[in-house]
Amino acid sequence: MAVDWDQAEKVAKAFAGHTSRGWIRVNCPLCVRDYKMSLGLNTKTGGYNCFKCGSKGWLPPTLRDLVPDDQPAKPEPEKVVMTLPDGFIEIYSEPGWSASSFDNAREYMRRRGISDSICAGVGVGGVLRGWLAGRVIIPIIEDDQVRGWVARDYTKTALRPYMYPTGMSRHGTLFNAMALREETDEPALIVEGCFDALPYWPDACACLGKPLSTHIPLILAARRPVIISLDGDAWEEGWAFAMKLRHLGGRVGFVKIPAGEDPGSVDPTWLREKARAAAHEWKRGDL
């Protein structure tokens, strides 16, 4: 059965915040008037049915996440302290800045629209020898401790464009998590990958993939508005994640990226303006 997204979103919002499991009932948002809790939802299958207006359908997993279950919260995973690769050197400060061996790496970043000043602020680096040579390395630092790194091939010869250190955990880890601690009205973007976040430095964090439940406490503790903006092919997941955070009390909005695009490929000025507008809509309660 095809999903009626407009209808499914209204149903998901109606059930958001309920902690019961099995069949649960609410007043139907699809009826003209309903005071008898005519809309039922099966939290296991996502199927819903209104016994008054006859509306029925199912919630896809991305919207089903808005209806929390009553399972006890899992303890937060212990954060792993890691080290940067052997031979790592920052290539936007001396002595790496003068090394012509990294000219191709810097040119690669410029072609991707990432300025030298942003790369210097992030501490982008590389190595001259070994299995990580020919890659730009982006450190993931939190509280002056290394939580991991992302190594991106710029030679177009590697079988795996991206590489990560063994043992790195995404749970409770965000690239540039410190941005959420800054108290400001300028919204912070939550995106998937580091290269999606870099054009918006220092106002973007990356989940290093799709958002996880262990990222929720970090976002809820933010001292600024937060805008979820995943890749265009994952907008449903991004919208559902944003709505879940809103129902948990977060100052969270959402921006939909066009199909086939991601935050790193669209015009940064456009996305920043959309993010500010979404934050303003959150204040008005329009989202």
Provide structural commentary.
The protein is of the alpha/beta class and 287 residues long. The protein folds into three domains: 5-64, no CATH class; 89-163, DNA primase, catalytic core, N-terminal domain (DNA primase DNAg catalytic core, N-terminal domain, Alpha-Beta Complex); 177-284, Dna Topoisomerase Vi A Subunit, Chain: A, domain 2, CATH 3.40.1360. Helices cover 24% and strands 18% of the residues. The chain is built from eight helices and 13 strands. The chain has helices at 5-15, 61-64, 103-111, 116-122, 194-197, 216-220, 235-247, 268-284, and strands at 23-26, 39-42, 47-50, 56-58, 89-90, 125-126, 135-142, 145-153, 162-163, 188-191, 204-206, 226-228, 252-254. The strands form four sheets. The protein has a four-stranded antiparallel sheet with strand order 1-2-3-4, with helices on one face. β2 (39-42) and β3 (47-50) form a beta hairpin. The longest helix is centred in the C-terminal third of the chain and has 17 residues, at 268-284. The chain is elongated and about 75 Å long. The chain starts with a helix and ends with a helix. The relative contact order is 0.10.
